[in-house]
Amino acid sequence: MATQRERDAREYLKKHKILELMDNMTSMLLFYRPENPQQFLIEQLELLKMSRESPMAAPNLFDNSNLTAVCSIMDPANQKYISFAQYKQALTMLGIKVINEKPEGGASDKISHETFKTEAMQVLARDSATYAKS
Fold it and tell me: Dihedrals φ, ψ of 131, to 5°?
């Protein structure tokens, strides 16, 4: 049975999203493999701090070029749109679990690359904001 101290520690970690923050930082270290990991972590934490004012500034593993590459994979004929099924599949590939079920263009089954990238960046920014406002 867990002690009160262990329960308090678990609650603290959950409240402040510490485990998510550490997972995020570790993933970024392994993805980018910076020469100076300590400085890189400091910079990422500064970006997280700035993202309190602007969520789109939150650091994450994917940028516009990555999302453009995903669009190219999903749209090899370069029609400049993807189907709703492709949109869901691409977001799932990026690790996004909760998606907008009614994106712009979804009703006609033609979701533009820009809509896909905007939707993805918004969710990725939200998901990588692993800090809790105090």
Answer: -130, 160
